[in-house]
Each structure stands twice: as C-alpha cells, then as structure tokens.
Design goal:
227 residues; alpha/beta; eleven-stranded mixed sheet; 3 helices; GXGXG domain-containing protein; Glu_synth_lsu_3; Glu_synth_asu_C
C-alpha cells in the first residue's frame, strides 16, 4: 500500500502520482492522510486502483473518475464525483450539494445524507444515498438511477428526462413533469442489485419509483406555466 501525506507532500504531487498509474500498475492501493478538507483530491483518475482518503474533503473530490475505487472516510464537500465516468466512489459520511452532477457512469454511494441538487443532470451514473437528499435533486436528470433510502426534499426530479428515481421515505414535493410511476418487476431487480452493491440495508419493495411524465419534451401552450 502506498501512503501519501497530503500535508507534507501537497495536492499537486498526489494527483500527479495518481494520474501516472496505468492499467497494469502494481501500486493498486493508496492511502491519503491529512486530507483536512482539501479540494480536488483524486480527480481525473483513469486506472483500476483503490484510493482511501482518511478524513473529510473539500470541493470536487473524485471528479471525472474512471475505473478507480475512491473511498472517503469522512464527509465530502460540493461536487463530489462530478462528471464521473466509471468506477466506484464511496462517501462514509455526508455529501454537500450537487453530488454526482453530470455523472456518465459508475456508482456513487453516500452512506450519510446528501445536500441539495444531488444527481443534477445525471447522464448514466448510479447514485445510492443511505440517508436523505435535499431540494432540487435529479434536476434535468437524463439517465441512470438515483436511490434514496431516506426522504427527498422539494422539487424532486424537476424537468427530468429518463432517469429512474427510487425513494423509500417521503418526498416533500415533486418537480415539474415528475410523477410517481409503477414499480414493475424489472425495476425491483435493478433496485435490488443497486442496494446490494451499495451495502444498503433496505428492501426494494419498500421504495416508490418516480420518473418523467414526458410532457415537457415538446412545447405545449397548456404547459406554459411549467416551463
């Protein structure tokens, strides 16, 4: 295991070392100590390595991740796993606003709560939140799955496209063009797999599914107030 002291060695040196890893690297496990809320830790990785950040992080941790498994042993600031492509990002604590925004793939697991705008404009990423999520989550979500084991705030799924939203608890309000939908057997299986992969202690039968009513795809004067 490679141990990197962020306080003494610096952020630029850390990301440079992680970016240097290739598919066939033998430096597969990294531990980052003295994170102390630093921004942009482990961004832009593109190798099948494991990075453990011992402590909480600032902005944009694990952004643009490909292939790597990144675990934050603490909480994460705004924009964690933003524009993620593949791999796995696990936050042991809470996540601030717009977690997983614009993510194209991979799995983001938040074991605490997520703040506002979780999963905005998601484009294929899977997000599992063990706790609650804040307002405007999944705004304009295009594809992928957002799983919430707790409650959801105001305007869930506002103006979303074809992403699937699963919520076990209450939803304060639904956004424009977001409606509750039937939970069919194929959705139960998708949800069961995600819950298992995320280590969430919940049953898929306890959730409700939400998705697009598909009324905002084309302009309709009767829907003008919703635009």
């Amino acid at each position: 295991m490679q141990t990197f002291d962020l306080e003494s060695q610096g952020l630029r040196a850390l990301n440079e070392a992680l970016h240097a890893q290739a598919e066939n690297t033998n430096q597969t496990v990294w531990e980052v100590v003295n994170a102390r809320g630093s921004h942009a830790i482990a961004v832009g990785l593109d190798a099948p390595i494991e990075v453990n950040v011992m402590g909480s992080t600032g902005y944009y941790c694990a952004g643009m991740n490909s292939q790597a498994t990144i675990k934050v042993h603490g909480s994460a600031g705004p924009g964690v796993a933003e524009n993620m492509m593949s791999g796995t990002v696990i936050i042991e604590g809470d996540a601030s606003q717009y977690a997983g925004a614009t993510g194209h793939g991979g799995l983001l697991v938040i074991k605490g709560n997520a703040s506002s705008r979780c999963g905005i404009s998601m484009k294929g990423i899977d997000i599992v939140v063990h706790g609650n999520i804040g307002h405007m989550s999944a705004f304009m979500a295009q594809s992928g799955n957002l799983v919430v084991c707790g409650d959801a705030g105001d305007a869930l799924g506002d103006s979303l496209y074809e992403a699937r939203l699963f919520v076990r608890g209450s939803v304060k309000s639904l956004g424009a063009d977001c409606i509750e939908k039937e939970m069919r057997p194929e959705h139960v299986e998708i949800l069961r797999d995600l819950l298992e992969r995320a280590g969430a202690d919940a049953k898929p039968e306890e959730f409700k599914r939400y998705g697009s009513a598909r009324q905002l795809y084309n302009f309709d004067v009767d829907n003008a107030a919703a635009y």
